[in-house]
Write a structure and sequence with these properties.
By secondary structure, this protein is of the alpha/beta class. It is built from 16 helices and 23 strands. The protein folds into 2 domains: 270 residues, Aldehyde Dehydrogenase, Chain A, domain 1 (3-Layer(aba) Sandwich), CATH 3.40.605; 186 residues, 3-Layer(aba) Sandwich (Aldehyde Dehydrogenase, Chain A, domain 2), CATH 3.40.309. Helices cover 39% and strands 22% of the residues.
Length: 498
């Protein structure tokens, strides 16, 4: 069994709190690691290392900071196979899916490599007699990220890459379920030339989270996870005077119009609904066929496709998806299926009793498909985070639009149609942060911004893209005049520029 550590001041540091969590291999159910859970003192040690290292890093010019990230991109490419295998072993997703996790993280690192341009301020020459005005973006200092289990490579990189590029020092608290990849990424950053102390990784649970929220030297906190915890962190962080961005749960709808390409729509639902065992915040968990004929055709096609999904260990390159992350996650999803049955939904495909031969102790579950789900049911209202797709039938376009608009979550949504007017109207009127038109998982590329609306997101600024630079910097505006022989005398009124 592997004994994990924290990563503080550029080196691995054993845990000293005396508290540990077990790390599992989801495909076998075995305990494969022991993960230290940081105390408040251990979090503070990481903050002190970051605080000491930060001034020199902030004074390093942006181009040199970008060079470190560029070398890091090359090192991740060099070790891509190793990282994907480690990620799959700890999380349970297939190796192909793990490589996608890494790639979408690296794209944000590549965006952050453009930091010399992104940090450029504004300049006005001659704003008044001999007066120039210019702005500059400066780093905040020590900042932190609290990241989830479902993307143990992507979301840490979404957090730390822009922050470090902007000249901050970073404290990363990854999920205690699969911290191996974040620790390895920290090693690669040191190899790339990042000064010790600029990225520190502390493993932990709520005690570590609270220590981050309470620490006066941490100026900003970013979080991705469930909505209740997102709201808790946002409320506590703001009360402590920190800049905070938190991203929570989702219930992503996919509207299928009568004119949609049904082959394309079914393929999209299968991939977006069941990929990564449904353990992603951008998974499509609600299909909304518009009209009885559309619903009947959709169900006729969906049922055999869900029944034929191939579930396998992470190492099986032909598997559609692997196990869930923990036994608790598996039990939770099974419980939601029971709730759906009791609520009166039609369970058209039941994958609860799936067993993987040779891996009977793994955390596997087959795909489940509900029909005749209504908006008053818990399986519609709540995020299940598993391989469960609910079909909610709508009589018309207006009802379908209202379903997405009225839901408390507003992370992602999609519409499948051949009608450009309908698509344009939907994109304009739907109250959701990320919209796909014939695209089932509308995750923007790194140079746009990622974030949901309503109870899917807390805070004014989103992840990656230009918003990340705004979040991790503060703007300073300078009004400058050099002596030119002008004798103005003292002025006791609001200064004017003319």
């Amino acid at each position: 069994m592997r004994e994990l550590t924290h990563f503080i001041g550029g080196k691995h540091v054993p845990g000293t709190s005396g508290r540990f969590a077990d790390g599992y291999q989801p495909m076998t159910g075995e305990v494969i690691s022991r993960i230290p859970l940081a105390s408040k003192a251990e979090v503070r040690a990481a903050v002190e290392n970051a605080k000491a290292a930060w001034p020199a890093w902030a004074a390093t010019n942006p181009q040199r900071r970008a060079r470190v990230l560029t070398r890091f991109v090359d090192l991740v490419a060099r070790d891509n196979e190793e990282l994907a295998e480690l990620l799959a072993r700890e999380h349970g997703k297939t190796i192909a899916d793990a490589k996608g996790d890494i790639q979408r993280g690296i794209e944000v690192v590549e965006f952050a490599c453009g930091i010399p341009h992104l940090l450029k301020g504004e300049f006005t020459d001659g704003a008044g007699p001999g007066i120039d005005i210019y702005s500059m973006r400066q780093p905040l200092g020590v900042v932190a990220g609290i990241t989830p289990f479902n993307f143990p490579a992507m979301i840490p990189m979404w957090k730390f890459a822009p922050a470090i590029a902007c000249g901050n020092a970073f404290i990363l608290k990854p999920s205690e379920r699969d911290p191996g990849v974040p620790l390895r990424l920290a090693e690669l950053l040191i190899e790339a030339g990042l000064p010790a102390g600029i990225l520190n990784v502390v493993n932990g649970d709520k005690q570590a989270v609270d220590a981050i929220l309470e620490d006066p030297d941490i100026k900003a906190v970013g979080f991705v996870g469930s909505t209740p915890i997102a709201e808790y962190i946002y409320t506590r962080g703001c009360a402590a005077g920190k800049r905070v961005q938190c991203f929570g749960g989702a219930k992503n709808h996919m509207i299928i119009m009568p004119d949609a390409d049904m082959n394309q729509a079914v393929d999209a639902l299968i991939g977006a609904g069941y990929g990564s065992a449904g353990e992603r915040c951008m998974a499509v968990s609600v299909a909304v066929p518009v009209g009885k004929g559309t619903a009947e055709e959709l169900m006729n096609r969906l049922v055999p496709r869900v029944e034929s999904l191939k579930i396998g260990p992470s190492t099986d390159s032909s598997a559609d998806f692997g196990p869930l992350v923990t036994r608790e996650a598996l039990d939770r999803v099974r419980n939601y299926v029971e709730i759906g049955i009791k609520e009166g939904a039609t369970l058209s495909v039941d994958g609860r009793d799936f067993k993987m031969q040779g891996y009977e102790d793994g955390f596997y579950m087959g795909g489940c498909l509900f029909d005749n789900v209504t908006k008053d049911m818990r399986i519609y209202k709540e995020e299940i985070f598993g391989p469960v797709l609910s079909v909610v039938r709508a009589e018309g376009y207006g009802e379908a639009l209202s379903l997405a608009n009225d839901h408390e979550y507003g992370n992602g949504v999609a519409i499948f149609t051949r009608d450009g007017d309908a698509a344009r109207d939907f994109a304009s009127k739907v109250e959701v942060g990320m919209v796909g038109v014939n695209v089932p998982i509308p995750v923007p590329l790194a140079y746009y911004t990622f974030g949901g609306w309503k109870r899917s997101g807390f805070g004014d600024l989103n992840q990656h893209g230009p918003d990340a630079v705004r979040f991790y910097t503060k703007t300073k505006t300078v009004t400058s005049r050099w002596p030119s022989g002008i004798k103005d005398g003292a002025s006791f009124t609001m200064p004017l520029m003319h």
